TrEMBL record:
GO terms for biological process: cellulose catabolic process. It comes from the Eukaryota. One of its GO terms (molecular function) is cellulase activity. It is an enzyme of class 3 (hydrolase). This is Endoglucanase. Keywords: Carbohydrate metabolism, Cellulose degradation, Glycosidase, Hydrolase, Membrane, Polysaccharide degradation, Transmembrane, Transmembrane helix. It catalyses: Endohydrolysis of (1->4)-beta-D-glucosidic linkages in cellulose, lichenin and cereal beta-D-glucans. Its EC number is 3.2.1.4. Belongs to the glycosyl hydrolase 9 (cellulase E) family. The active site is at 442.
Length: 524
């Protein structure tokens, strides 16, 4: 009995040792697999596939905000409470600046964010035009883009002159009125050789160069016009270097620039795509990559900072094997490595993931306009994911851990689903989408009845506790605080104001998620 007992205990002991050893081996295999597994590239997507209804519906809503923001004599207007406005803009300089879009909830036209809106909208159409077309939104996107580029061309009447602002923000912000009722003076601000504005001139060059690609097969004459202005503006921006925040100090209160090197790289990148001229590729790689691009340092993409966008845009050249010299390819590799570092910062399971997230999972960088960064970052993530798929790149590494295109897409889906209502507030931050969205958007036109005759003095509509009488369809409001809370008050512009530049990245993100298809290897 005792001998049998000792024998049984011995077998049990050996069994335990074997099980533990097996578990250790399994854990090591899993770890090594996660860190070094070379997964097979996913098949290259074909034409647009099955439509994801919620993203298609959200895109159709988001596109309408561009119609809400239009200035000038409206054509085929579908926003019942909007009408013609600012018809005399630019008249004092004998140019027509009536078109363009108001930047946010006021009636200012600021050139830097407006041009950025156009560049991102162009990028979205170039990458995802077929997916937009699948839900009948491509023409709408082109119309919105042309409304801005018409303004930008008119704002560039001479080689080294660019009008970068219409309206006086001090006067504008003292008035709470409908744009159709404006009677105040709307002065013009320009940059030129003695008062340079490199960042705004370069961003405008990027907008027109990218838009020239959009219209190349639709209206070649207009495309040529856009490209000619883009090249002139880039030469102006690069030759007469200086920040518009110094030349025009008042913009520091509204759209202050933190530097212009990123816009020069951004513009030259788009000009290379539009022209195929190797001098632009050399500019961003050999000549100025090391000094301007901050290689290896992840950044956030925004109307002010184009570095992350440039890293991703130039990665497509490297992934799709562009014609480049050895030195240029070395620079492109650095752009791609930096783009991957940006992606690693977004993925929650990455060793280098940003810890700045709300409890509900939203990437959260700034309390003012908090949705700006997660939406822009998600747009870049979807783009990079699709570049990987279309170039048959299976994975990338974050400090030894491998991640795939689907990881990037899942991150983007987590962010957009939060925005569309899967959040602790159960609130859609896209006005007009779903049954529960903000009712007090900080927006003059939306907050004032269409038949009101209050003129400039309409502050009673700003302070009213009643919901807006007009729905600012497609407005992406500023967003929640880091604790996922949101105060729906018209006076709370930090959270309730919308902007066209946020709408541009949102449209790009939604267009990439509507369905799956391959992105073009080249824009030309």
């Amino acid at each position: 009995m005792g001998a049998v007992s000792r024998c049984s205990k011995g077998w049990v002991g050996w069994l335990i040792v074997l099980v533990v050893a097996a578990l250790v081996v399994t854990a090591v295999v899993i770890t090594v697999t996660k860190k070094s597994h070379k997964s097979e590239p996913a098949p290259v997507p074909g034409p647009p596939g099955e439509i994801t209804t919620k993203y298609a519906d959200a895109l159709s809503v988001a596109m309408q905000f561009f119609d809400v923001q239009k200035s000038g004599k409206l054509v085929d207007n579908k926003i019942s409470w909007r009408g013609d406005s600012a018809l005399k803009d630019g008249s004092q300089a004998k140019i027509d600046l009536s078109k363009g879009m108001y930047d946010a909830g006021d009636h200012m036209k600021f050139g830097l964010p407006m041009a950025f809106t156009a560049t991102v909208l162009s990028w979205s159409i170039l990458e995802y035009g077929d997916q937009m077309a699948a839900i009948k939104q491509q023409d709408h996107a082109r119309d919105a883009l042309r409304w801005i580029t018409d303004f930008l061309v008119a704002a560039h009447p001479k080689d080294n002159v660019l009008y970068i602002q219409v309206g006086d923000p001090d006067i504008d912000h003292k008035c709470w009125e409908r744009p159709e009722a404006m009677t105040e003076e709307r002065p013009l601000v320009q940059v030129n050789t003695t008062s340079p504005g490199t960042e705004v001139a370069a961003e405008t060059a990027a907008a027109l160069a990218s838009a020239s690609l959009v219209f190349k097969t639709v209206d070649s004459t207009y495309s040529d016009l856009l490209l000619r202005h883009a090249q002139q503006l880039f030469t102006f921006a690069d030759t007469y270097r200086g920040s518009y925040s110094i030349s025009v100090p008042k913009v520091q209160q509204y759209y202050n620039s933190t530097g212009y090197k990123d816009e020069l790289l951004w513009a030259a990148s788009w000009l290379y795509h539009a022209t195929g001229d190797q001098s632009y590729l050399s500019y961003v790689t050999v000549q100025n990559g090391r000094g301007f691009a901050d290689w290896g340092r992840p950044t956030w993409f925004s109307w002010d900072d184009k570095r992350a966008g440039t890293q991703v845009l130039l990665s497509r050249l490297h992934l799709f094997s562009s014609k480049a010299s050895n030195a240029e390819n070395a620079g492109l590799r650095m752009y791609q490595k930096t783009a991957e570092a940006i992606m690693c910062g977004l993925l929650p399971d990455s060793p280098t993931a940003t810890s700045s997230r709300s409890d509900g999972g939203l990437v959260w960088i700034d309390q003012w306009n908090s949705l700006q960064h997660p939406v822009a970052a998600s747009f870049l993530a979807v783009l990079y994911s699709d570049y990987m798929l279309s170039s048959r790149t299976a994975s990338f590494s974050c400090n030894g851990n491998s991640f795939t295109p689907s990881d990037l897409r899942n991150f983007a889906i987590s962010q957009i689903d939060y925005i569309l209502g899967n959040n602790p507030m159960k609130l859609s931050y896209l006005v007009g989408y779903g049954s529960n969205y903000p009712q007090h958007v900080h927006h003059r036109g939306a907050s004032i009845p269409a038949d009101a005759k209050n003129g400039c003095d309409g502050l009673q509509w700003l302070t009213s506790s009643k919901p807006n009488p007009n729905v600012a369809m497609g407005a992406l409001v500023g967003g929640p605080f880091k604790n996922d809370s949101y105060i729906d008050s018209r006076n709370n512009s930090m959270q309730t104001e919308a902007s066209t530049y946020n709408s541009a990245v949102l449209v790009g993100l939604l267009s990439g998620l509507v369905t799956t298809s391959s992105v073009p290897a080249s824009f030309t």
